[in-house]
Structures are given as structure tokens and as C-alpha cells.
Amino acid sequence: MSDYIVTNGRTIAGDVPGLRPADRRESLGNAVDVEIRDGVIDRIVPAGEGDPDAFAADCRYDADGRLLTPPLIEPHVHLDATGTAGDPSWNDSGTLAEGIEVWAEYKKDITVDDILDRATKTVEWYASHGVTRIRTHADTTEPSLTTVEALVELKSRVSDLVDLQVVAFPQDGILTGESNEDLLSEAVEMGVDLVGAIPHNEYTREDGVKSVEIACDLAEKHDLPLDLHIDETDDPGSRFTEVLASESIKRGIGDRVTASHTTATHSYNNAYADKLISMLAESGVSVVTNPPDNSVLQGAYDDYPRRRGHTRIDELRAAGVTVGLGHDSVLDPWYHYGVADPLDAAFILAHYAHMAGRGDVEVLWEMLTAANAEIFGADDYGLAEGNEGSLVVYDSPDGFNALRRQAPRTLVLRDGKPIAETEPSTTTVHRSGGPVPVDYKR
Ligand SMILES: [Zn+2]
């Protein structure tokens, strides 16, 4: 915990409650000074009204009119598989199924040290991009629980950078292997934070329904929340999200349940989608969409035209469902690219979900920050006095240009301490009259 001041930062429009300084302009947020004491936001005042002299010289940062947001949150990633893309083979078909096959081959010889090395590197990438909370899935299916052991160990190893949640995730299904149900139960005893399932990957519809019930029973028994990979397919007949919503309503646990992916929603007929979205809204279940993976995995079985495969973000939000935005994969068999930057995921979503309008900018930021924070269960989150002294400064004047350029994060502050800094690079073009520095800002 420490004291720190950031002066002249520019917030996303309207995200500091109650603060409306005179210089507020359309599409730009508030110009503010943020004073942090003992790791907590003590004061947020209009720019120029803060007191930098009250802080040590190395605990002052002039944002110089740049964008300032609360820290970013990654609500969905697989840190056990990160960094394995191409090993032992690439996913040439681009399907979820081949990704699972490649991963099954890799994990035969997996070790704790191997996972820790790859995952630590990816967490450092995340922190450099302003992420201070990560929810990772850990494969609990055969042959072993090495992935769970490693990712539970990782929590303390990276606690100086991020809060890490681990989901016990039965990648191959709960009822598809003789010991998978026992392994899931065992994993839950090893210090995980949530229980998962993957009903669309079970052998039958009946097994899929049963797998949701098993996961809910296990979560209730251990008083844990749930995060299920669910209906991550183009098959409109895959209808397990309704089972999860139904169980959540009957058990009264919806506010602790996340439905990840739900890409089949894209392919449902509108009458059924309307019923399902109403159930989700009633249940309180949140949804996480994962644009990088689902932009390449969905539609892989289609002839032309090829479907997109994101969940129905606009309709879910209109119904009051919280919709978060995750990355899912960083350099793994399901998605070969990635640098662990949530702005990458938002940029892809802007295109694939037809969210490229100017009015969508605030929605994307709301998903990246407040919605993800709600899903993660982040306490004391957001730019308000009394909340955690954590924030991110971008080399951008506003939220639109930060997304457009995936702007470098010049400062990442966590509980009043810098955990990452980036010096933006410079580029020069050699004109006939001499060198000219390139200004990508607009
Ligand atoms: Zn996933």
C-alpha cells in the first residue's frame, strides 16, 4: 500500500460518479487528478485542483491529458495451455475439436514447471497491459491434475501483479472418461476458486444435462461459484445454457454463475433466443464472450456464407444480462495469436459483433471494466473515492483512440504502486524535406 498522485488524466465519458467539471466536452470524459493514500483512492478532483506537492517526487505522474481508466480484468483465459501454439502441431482445421486433440497430445507429458514458466510470462504480459485480475481455467481431465497443481501454485507466485482465480475445468467432459468426475471432485479440494463444466462436449444431450447438475451440486457443496464453457458451437441444437439458467433459478445461485461463450446463441432461431435471454435475465447468470477464439473457431464447419459466432451481446445487454469480454487463449491450439491484451479482444469484437459505431465505444469499455469486475467479483473497484488505488494510463487522449491503436499503457498502478510502465516508441518517415516524426494520434 502506498501514496501516489496522477494528475490531468482523462476518464472515459461519465465514469466518475458525481463529477462534472466545467471543461467536460462531448465524447471525452472528465479531466481529473487522482490522489491515492494507503493504496486507496482518497480524492478525485478536477484537473489542477490536486496537490502534487503533498506526494514524494517519485510518486507523482503527469498523465498530460491522456486516457485514464480503472484496471482491466481478464475474466476468461487458459493459462495452462498458453504459449503452446504449434506444439506438438498446429490446429490446421481451425476447429474447437482439433484444438482439443492437439492439447490432449501436449498434456500427456506436461509438468508443473513447464506450466509455471509459460503462465508466468503471460501474466506479465497481462500486467503490462493494465490487467490486475485474471480468471484462468485449469484442465481437470485425464491423465492428471498437474494443471490444477500448477495454476493454484501460480496464484501466490504472481500475487505481486494480479489476483488470480482458478476454475476447475473438465476440458474433455465430466462423463466422457472413467475418472474425470473423480478428478473434478479432487481438483475442487486443491484450492480452486470456481467449478466448471463443458456440457456440449459430453457424448449425449442427457450426459450434458447431467454434467451441468454435477457441476452445480459440487459448487453448492463447496460453496463455490461456477463458470461453465457452454454451447460453444455453431449447432443450434446445443441448448445447455437453458439448463444452467434453469438450475440457477431453482437453486437461487445465478449471481454466482458465469456462462462462457454461448456462441450457439448466434445460430438459434429468434423465438428460442428470446426465451433463453429472458431466462438468463431472470436467473442473474452473467455471460462472457471471447472474441479472439470465437472469431476463428466459429463457422469452421460452414460452407459459404460462414457464420460469425459471438453471443447476442446487444440483446443480452438490453435484457439486463451482464456481458463480460475475455480473451480465452494466448498462443495456444485454439487461437494461435495473442499478446494478452484485453484491447485486442475488444478490437476484434468491434468488428465481429458489428460494434464499430461511435456509441459502441463506451459499451466496449463498460464490458472491459465494470462488467468484467462484476463477473470477477472485484470489490472496491472503479474510479471513485474509497475504492482501490488502481488505474491505468494510456498513450491516447480518449477511449476511441485507445481501442483504435491498442495504445500502450504508459502506467499501471495497483493499490498505489506502479506494477508496469511502457515508454511509447517513436517512428520517423523520411520525407524529401527531411525526417518527420509520425503522429498516429488523431
Ligand atoms: Zn475457454
- Rg calculated over all Cα atoms: 22 Å
Number of strands: 18
Oligomer: single chain
Taken in chain order, the helices and strands follow as: EEEEEEHHEHEHEHEHEHEHHEHHEHEEEE
Number of domains: 2
The assigned CATH architecture of the largest domain is: Alpha-Beta Barrel
Cα end-to-end separation: 37 Å
Low-confidence runs: 17-27
> What overall geometry do the principal axes of the alpha carbons give?
globular
The number of helical elements comes to 12
Q: What's this entry about, in short?
A:
The chain is α/β, with parallel strands linked by helices and 442 residues long. 32% of the residues lie in helices and 21% in strands. The relative contact order is 0.16.
How does this model look, in words?
By secondary structure, the chain is of the alpha/beta class. The chain folds into two domains: 4-70 and 382-421, Urease, subunit C, domain 1, CATH 2.30.40; 72-376, TIM Barrel. The protein has twelve helices and 18 strands. It has helices spanning 96-107, 112-128, 146-157, 180-188, 205-221, 241-251, 270-283, 291-297, 313-318, 342-352, 360-376, 399-405, and strands at residues 4-11, 31-37, 40-46, 60-62, 67-69, 72-77, 131-139, 163-169, 194-195, 226-230, 257-261, 286-289, 323-325, 391-394, 409-414, 417-421, 428-431, 434-437. Strands 1, 2, 3, 4, 5, 14, 15 and 16 form an eight-stranded mixed β-sheet that branches. It has a four-stranded parallel β-sheet with strand order 6-7-8-9, sandwiched between helices. Strand 17 (428-431) and strand 18 form a beta hairpin. Helix 6 packs parallel to helix 7 (270-283). The longest helix is centred in the first third of the chain and has 17 residues, at 112-128. The chain is globular and about 65 Å long. The structure holds zinc ion (ZN).
